[in-house]
Amino acid sequence: MRLKGKVAIVTGSTKGIGLETAKVFAREGAKIVICGTRENAIKEVVEEIKSGGAEALGFKVDVSNRASVDEMVTEVKNAWGRIDILVNNAGITADAMLKKMTEEQFDKVLNTNLKGVYNCAQAVLDTMTEQGSGVILNASSVVGIYGNIGQTNYAAAKWGVIGMTKTWAKELGRKGIRVNAVAPGFIMTPMTEAVPEKVLDMMKEKAPLQRLGMPIDIANAYLFLASDEASFITGAVLSVDGGLVI
């Protein structure tokens, strides 16, 4: 087991990529912290992971609210004594063309997708520093690297995540903490369910691998970066996009 005995917090882990990541980490021996905004969903995922023989805790967390994050981190530390891995997966969209995007749409996405990453990373920092070890994995996106029509807010947040990832890698390496980002392409998740079939087909055609990604593709990338196999990797942005942006 590649994560045996590790304590892993996965934000936004009641569906999509976060859920798949939590399941993969649990199968590899980690103790899992499920974070989300829907209490029933959190309970269901915790029970599912426990039924597979792994340990799990669940918390209702708004990552844009620092008090909410701090409370979760304190309870995890009290329960399990350590925090080894943080996967900053929680994210939302509120798309609109620049001319029509509202300040509320812009702020909402930046508060969750960018400030939320900052909140969670800073909240676990003291624990990881005391341990002399830790891994922080941040969800960026190909949209954060190359932009996308109608996603000013999302692109700004995901590009900002890359900047924070590289900055933290430089700051925290001497403390034994590795920081990396994953930049998914178009992945079949609840977030893409609203995308028209014609657009999804176009994305498939553009990618050399001729398919859209699945949550397991991203979960496996997180697993590698979280494991000791990636012990000399920090400050990296791993694109998992089927070659979409070649």
Q: What would your notes on this structure say?
A:
The structure is a single chain. With 246 residues, this protein is of the alpha/beta class. It has eight helices and seven strands, in the order E-H-E-H-E-H-E-H-E-H-H-E-H-H-E. Strands 3-2-1-4-5-6-7 form a seven-stranded parallel sheet, sandwiched between helices. Strand 4, helix 4 (103-131) and strand 5 (134-139) form a beta-alpha-beta unit. The two termini are 34 Å apart.
Largest sheet: 7 strands, parallel
What is Rg?
17 Å
Tell me, what is the CATH class?
Alpha Beta
Order of helices and strands: EHEHEHEHEHHEHHE
Stretches where pLDDT falls below 50 for ≥5 residues? none
Oligomerization category of the chains in this entry: single chain
Give the class from helix and strand content and strand pairing: alpha/beta
CATH homologous superfamily (4th level) name: NAD(P)-binding Rossmann-like Domain
Overall geometry:
globular
Distance between the termini: 34 Å
Helix content: 40-55%
What's the number of extended β-strand segments? 7
Strand line-up of the largest beta sheet: 3-2-1-4-5-6-7
